[in-house]
Design goal:
Strand content: 25-35%
Largest sheet: 4 strands, antiparallel
CATH architecture: 2-Layer Sandwich
Number of helices: 2
CATH topology: Alpha-Beta Plaits
Strand order of the largest sheet: 2-3-1-4
Number of strands: 4
């Protein structure tokens, strides 16, 4: 499946969440990630994220689609991290 992940965590936990999300998805901008991921890997990532987060104040939002073809991506301005160079 194709996933866009966005997190908002306390600045004390930002580095850990960044490192976690980079292991599973492609970083595209600040706390935004995208990419293809299996259901099992996504569950694994969510469990690890819950271990980092304070679920009473932090958030992780996941937008899921069966395939990236079903999403139109429009970039206005400079793209922070291009994923065009991936095979």
């Amino acid at each position: 499946m194709y996933v866009i992940a966005v997190y908002d965590v306390n600045e004390k936990r930002v580095a850990k969440m960044l490192k976690l999300c980079r292991r599973y998805l492609n970083w595209i901008q600040n706390s935004v990630f995208e990419g293809e991921i299996s259901e099992v890997k996504l569950k694994e990532m969510v469990i690890e994220a819950e271990g980092i987060m304070d679920v009473t104040t932090d958030s992780l939002i996941l937008f899921k689609s069966r395939n990236s073809r079903w999403l139109d991506k429009q970039i206005v301005g400079q793209e922070k991290m291009s994923t065009d160079n991936f095979l």
